[in-house]
């Protein structure tokens, strides 16, 4: 009995010295990885404020063709548009048309009828390499606390805006960008969102994808299945 007690007293300091890892929330196993291609899933920053008539949380980014070289980003409840990341920090549409590269492009703010700058900046999946800085992480964070999410070119937020009506070349729900650092910058009829990359299983960059000089596809950090992520068990908060 005395021997057992002395052994227990000896082990107690060792137990107290062990790393206290049980209070750390790890990433849910197999939720993120590096992959070649991905879609972009809409994550509403405050789901309680989602559009009541058409909730967009969990939908995917798609495009509506406006012209031969311009496509408007919108949302869909079906499979989203496929993209890949390049070594130039741009996001490209995964197209095999060698004569028409398409990249995620951000435009300067426009003006309203009074000459005032409109609060949102248009996005397009348009001819060209795309805007530098619309990119994703390419290495896993050490503690997995960061959320793999499409970055913007500066402080601000992506938004989904209700344009009021839908027609052949005019989607009602449009993805745009708003520069700024607070929720106050989000205009009326728009919701602040994050664009979460979701890996395309078995997806590869199209063999005919047009690439510029010095431009190569790179693997990006993406989620296996955004809808299946158990956020309460994940250290990443999106």
Automatic annotation (TrEMBL):
Domain of life: Eukaryota
Signal peptide: 1-17
Keywords of this entry: Signal
One Pfam family from the record: DUF7907
Start and end residues of each DUF7907 domain: 37-199
UniProt cross-references to InterPro entries, sorted A to Z: DUF7907
Protein name: DUF7907 domain-containing protein
The organism of origin for this protein: Schizothecium vesticola
């Amino acid at each position: 009995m005395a021997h057992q007690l002395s052994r227990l007293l000896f082990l107690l300091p060792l137990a107290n010295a062990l790393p206290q890892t049980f209070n750390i929330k790890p990433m849910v196993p197999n939720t993120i990885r590096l992959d070649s291609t991905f879609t972009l899933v809409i994550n509403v920053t405050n789901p309680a404020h989602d559009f009541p008539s058409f909730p967009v949380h969990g939908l995917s980014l798609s495009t509506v063709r406006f012209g031969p070289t311009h496509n408007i980003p919108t949302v869909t409840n079906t499979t989203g548009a496929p993209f890949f990341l390049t070594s130039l920090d741009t996001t490209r549409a995964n197209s095999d048309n060698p004569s028409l590269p398409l990249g995620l492009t951000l435009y300067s703010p426009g003006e309203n009828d009074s000459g005032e700058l409109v609060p949102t900046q248009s996005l397009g999946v348009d001819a060209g390499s795309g805007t530098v800085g619309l990119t994703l992480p390419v290495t896993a964070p050490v503690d997995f606390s960061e959320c793999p999410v499409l970055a913007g070119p500066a402080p601000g937020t992506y938004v989904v805006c209700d344009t009021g009506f839908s027609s052949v070349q005019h989607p009602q729900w449009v993805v745009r960008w708003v520069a700024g650092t607070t929720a106050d910058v989000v205009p009326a009829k728009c919701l602040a969102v994050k664009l979460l990359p979701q890996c395309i299983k078995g997806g590869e960059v199209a063999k005919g994808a047009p690439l510029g000089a010095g431009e190569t596809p790179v693997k990006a950090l993406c989620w296996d299945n955004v809808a299946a992520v158990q956020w309460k068990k994940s250290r990443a908060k999106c």
